[in-house]
Design goal:
Structural class: alpha+beta
Strand content: 5-15%
Distance between the termini: 40 Å
Strand order of the largest sheet: 1-2-3
Shape: globular
Helix content: 55-70%
Number of strands: 3
Radius of gyration: 21 Å
Length: about 190
């Protein structure tokens, strides 16, 4: 198919990607630079439940927006990141979604990989990670700020205080579940090292 610009390219790479273990996809790029016409083929494959990267990075594209255009692009990118997180949250309860979960070890590995590519990819990764943490903290899960936010709204509407004892029990259960998930994800990361 004919693709013009990075937006169409990344939309294609996102919409048409292999998902099964061992499944591969070869993409042939034909390009022109001045009088030079050439092509390159890149293959991406699913290994260990993850789609391996093919070395194309959206942030490598030079962008020099003005101040107000930069603000506009920032909000657009923030919206795309949040939208992606909602999609990821929806797929979390599938086999593929669980295989994509990563803990502190995987975060360290990815951050080290991004740092090796330069300051821009690293700062980009830190920004995405910060948005992810903020998004996760606002989920209505007992033990997180999102749960307290929902309770506060409920108290404002009903004008009644929520039972402190019940809230304490729910927060305790929520924190235990979160710690359990963290331990399981960390064990998965450790197993993945070998």
């Amino acid at each position: 198919c004919d693709i013009e610009g990075s937006e169409q390219l990344f939309a294609y790479l996102t919409d048409f990607k292999p998902s099964e273990e061992g499944e591969s996809q070869t993409i042939k790029f034909e390009y022109s630079r001045g009088e030079l016409n050439d092509s390159i083929s890149l293959t991406r494959v699913v290994e260990d439940g993850k789609l391996q990267p093919i070395g194309i990075s959206k942030i490598s594209e030079p962008i020099n927006p003005g101040f107000f255009e930069g603000i506009k692009l920032s909000f657009q990118m923030f919206g795309k990141v949040v939208s992606t997180m909602f999609k990821a949250l929806g797929s979390l309860f599938t086999k593929a979604g669980i295989s994509q979960l990563g803990g502190p070890i995987q975060i360290y590995q990815v951050s080290a990989e991004q740092a090796s590519q330069g300051i821009i990819p690293y700062v980009w990764f830190v920004a995405i990670l910060s948005i992810n943490l903020g998004f996760f903290n606002l989920l209505p899960i007992p033990g997180l700020d999102g749960s307290r936010f929902i309770v506060s709204i409920g108290e404002m509407i009903t004008r009644r205080k929520f039972n402190v004892k019940v809230e304490s029990y729910l927060n305790f259960i929520g924190i235990i579940l979160l710690l359990l998930i963290m331990v399981l994800v960390t064990v998965k990361d450790v197993i993945g090292l070998f």
